[in-house]
């Protein structure tokens, strides 16, 4: 009987110590500015905005304390997904290309963002995307 308990205890330790982890995609952060580099949310120009995916599902957005927008729960898939940004200033489209994370954990990584639209300029600012809406 003692051997059975020892076996179950050892088995339980191996099962519970198994490494389980998940790497969520890095967050995507947008900063909207005008041609004078003024933040459009801060100066009150950009008052309403939303993002929908190609299936017309709304994406959750979080406004940061420095008036940038974090896109919630995007990029957790294999392939390319299209999105539409609409606002009281200007609409544009973009796509996110993601792939499975190659490492010790499960998860996804965002490989590429592609923006399309008339009169917008986008700069990767190493941590967020500065989008100039003209």
Task: List the keywords.
5-stranded mixed beta sheet, 134 residues, 1 helix, mainly beta
Structure description:
By secondary structure, the chain is mainly beta. Helix content is 11%, strand content 43%. The chain has one helix at residues 2-16; strands at residues 22-23, 28-33, 49-53, 61-63, 69-71, 79-87, 92-100, 106-116, 120-124, 129-133. The strands form two sheets. A five-stranded mixed β-sheet has the order 1-8-7-6-3, with no helix packed on it. Strands 4-5-2-10-9 form a five-stranded mixed β-sheet, with no helix packed on it.
Secondary-structure map with pairings?
Elements: H1 2-16, E1 22-23, E2 28-33, E3 49-53, E4 61-63, E5 69-71, E6 79-87, E7 92-100, E8 106-116, E9 120-124, E10 129-133
Parallel strand pairs: 1-8, 2-10
Antiparallel strand pairs: 2-5, 3-6, 4-5, 6-7, 7-8, 9-10
């Amino acid at each position: 009987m003692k051997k059975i308990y020892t076996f179950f205890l050892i088995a339980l330790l191996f099962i519970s110590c198994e490494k389980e982890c998940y790497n969520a995609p890095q967050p995507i952060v947008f900063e909207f500015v005008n041609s004078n580099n003024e933040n459009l949310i801060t100066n009150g120009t950009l008052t309403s905005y939303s993002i929908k995916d190609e299936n017309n599902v709304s994406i959750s957005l979080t406004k940061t304390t420095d008036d940038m927008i974090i896109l919630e729960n995007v990029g957790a898939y294999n392939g390319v997904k299209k999105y539409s940004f609409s606002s009281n200033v200007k609409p544009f489209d973009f796509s996110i290309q993601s792939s499975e994370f190659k490492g010790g954990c499960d998860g996804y990584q965002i490989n590429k963002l592609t923006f399309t639209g008339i009169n917008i300029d986008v700069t990767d600012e190493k941590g967020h995307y500065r989008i100039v809406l003209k």
